[in-house]
Queue: 4 jobs
Job 1
Amino acid sequence: AQKVTQAQTEISVVEKEDVTLDCVYETRDTTYYLFWYKQPPSGELVFLIRRNSFDEQNEISGRYSWNFQKSTSSFNFTITASQVVDSAVYFCALSEAPASGGSYIPTFGRGTSLIVHP
Amino acid sequence: AAGVIQSPRHLIKEKRETATLKCYPIPRHDTVYWYQQGPGQDPQFLISFYEKMQSDKGSIPDRFSAQQFSDYHSELNMSSLELGDSALYFCASSLEGVGTGYTFGSGTRLTVV
């Protein structure tokens, strides 16, 4: 079984603040993938990052950074100097190696709604 | 770059009617996934296809069926629609093995009245 927990339902910040979105996952597999997606008010799911379980290197992309810690089963997402356009729901997702004949199926967390005020 | 195309973007149906949602994956992607996202909910996996064969099944109601055609596009058929079927329906595509991750379409917003 796999499970993704995003304990923060909603976060409200003022522009230029840094904000961290938490993601904790559960899996018994040693091979798995973690993802973050952004869902703006328009509704589409925008891919942000994919990380496999063998790569614990943290990643930075502009104002976005991700901290993957297998020891705590966490894959947290930080936005530096937040902007109003960052306002969206952010989903963390996990997919495990499939059973024979199956596919990797992403399971999503409940999402964190980020509101950035001007 | 080509993305996942879903049609229609919006659909309004009455209870007990049927609906067909279409998904055109990214060229050369061999796996298609369907998800349902209710209001304020996370996307829930419905069904997936790999090389035109059903590969996995999630929480898809018996009233729903899906298939993937020879050109790799997929259709989700929904019959005897209920009010609770109102949701955003996403299609995603990938290359088997997650090497390229999952690319989602913009979704079809279905409203059942």
Job 2
Amino acid sequence: DVKVTQSSRYLVKRTGEKVFLECVQDMDHENMFWYRQDPGLGLRLIYFSYDVKMKEKGDIPEGYSVSREKKERFSLILESASTNQTSMYLCASSSPSLETQYFGPGTRLLVL
Amino acid sequence: RKEVEQDPGPFNVPEGATVAFNCTYSNSASQSFFWYRQDCRKEPKLLMSVYSSGNEDGRFTAQLNRASQYISLLIRDSKLSDSATYLCVVNKKGAAGNKLTFGGGTRVLVKP
């Protein structure tokens, strides 16, 4: 079974803090994704990566950056957290030949 | 206009009944289509792919209408465990690989 894990299930941070969200997958997938999910807006793609050290902007990259130093790990960074970044963050992975994405359990981030 | 639109519901369904709902997509270049299921406070998981000829998986039937740009999901003999949010997902292959776009989800509540 594919396993995608995320470093925290719940996180509370203060405005202006730097926040790191980590995602690890164990299926040797090339592709990894970060989404945020908000009520009424569905899942929105923040950033994705198709290879180590490679990143592409998704639909809402502003206020975020990412890092992919190893194939299995994809990190999402909030350089200076703001209250409008309070959300559920979901990481996913897939291989290029697959259209299916496998999701981690999500991190609920609250920015005060 | 959102790329993928769904009725948010909730659809309140008596146990044993049939429920059906649609999803419309705006990008005619979309190539493949999926239904994902998301339980409360959990990550999305692939329910089934949707192909041009439509397909069935047990009590679930998915249909695609390319001319009208919608897909549908029908659940027969609803079980309490079918209560979830159903996400319509559309894939468009680009130079960088597959890009999934998610609808906001349709919530289904199956009641005894």
Job 3
Amino acid sequence: AQKITQTQPGMFVQEKEAVTLDCTYDTSDQSYGLFWYKQPSSGEMIFLIYQGSYDEQNATEGRYSLNFQKARKSANLVISASQLGDSAMYFCAMREGSGAGSYQLTFGKGTKLSVIP
Amino acid sequence: GAGVSQSPSNKVTEKGKDVELRCDPISGHTALYWYRQRLGQGLEFLIYFQGNSAPDKSGLPSDRFSAERTGESVSTLTIQRTQQEDSAVYLCASSLEGGRVFDEQFFGPGTRLTVL
């Protein structure tokens, strides 16, 4: 079974509008972390935001916020006031806090976001 | 400060040849990771180094792949007898500790490997 599922291969958003990128995850661990990375066409991976499984409040970083619904195992990324520079691939990733491989990130397949002027 | 660097940025090789990819982590980072990203896909974990501990090689796809790290410094990923399916971008990341759930991984720019 996929540990990280991103169901939107591509998304379009009008400049200055908000957009939500979906991510669901699967784990039996109680301790885990969820990450979002941005990958522009240049290829580098840019860390955006982190949510820990024990964090009670949704994470926010500037225009990025994470809509964390633990019972539904979803961790959607919300980008407010989209800018042309937000056009990129976005990856959701999880790190499970116990057991073998607890330090590696498991990535979803990504969502390609295109911001329209 | 310097980020994670990787070399070469691009490598084109012929099927059957060996290649060596290099990663220089951020100074002071004890944890180092290699990932592979095939075209249009997410990243796949390959190998993890933490200080002087034995590396976790559980993600290496075959025995043609190996990696070494000198202390808490440079790492090299070697692919022997390359195959066309090895064509991908190989990304290296480093982090401060590696042992906590939140431990931000800083990625290098990657090496794009093309096997003809």
Job 4
Amino acid sequence: DAGVIQSPRHEVTEMGQEVTLRCKPISGHDYLFWYRQTMMRGLELLIYFNNNVPIDDSGMPEDRFSAKMPNASFSTLKIQPSEPRDSAVYFCASTRTELMNTEAFFGQGTRLTVV
Amino acid sequence: GNSVTQMEGPVTLSEEAFLTINCTYTATGYPSLFWYVQYPGEGLQLLLKATKADDKGSNKGFEATYRKETTSFHLEKGSVQVSDSAVYFCALSPTGGGNKLTFGTGTQLKVEL
């Protein structure tokens, strides 16, 4: 398996623009997580899905952020409008129910820079 | 709520030195505890885990023991290598909480020749 695939790896955008980050989880995994990593705040859970349904979005910073999972093999995290403080590395991770309380598999991340 | 506290870095060691990275946690019940490692430019990878008190997780020469009495899960390695240079994250998954991981802030380790 190719692992969790995120795209793009790097994104530079201007303030006010819409940004869409993409994630393909490992086939057969029924949990998908979006994390944000910054120097100041470390690794924060933004939202997670189980069987394509959002379970907990309490970590989503504000209404400018939205996430969808239209099917088991694809998820997006959208920021509209983007702001410089959104600059961070965004990670997607997946796992499956049988692996509860164990390993989550992470993608390589998308480094977002908002100028 | 649940939280994980780890020692701040960076930690700089010479090759073959002994490593300890401290981690303490706050959680109700009996969480599962993890150490993840992040190499430059990559995502996080599971290094080791422990799911109940007094369990010892081990992998690649690293060890950590789940100490409920001190709510700790310190990471140790007897002899570090340059290739161990990375950021190490302590994390917990709460009792019955599925796979919702809470991470510490990470500790950067630099190993020099």
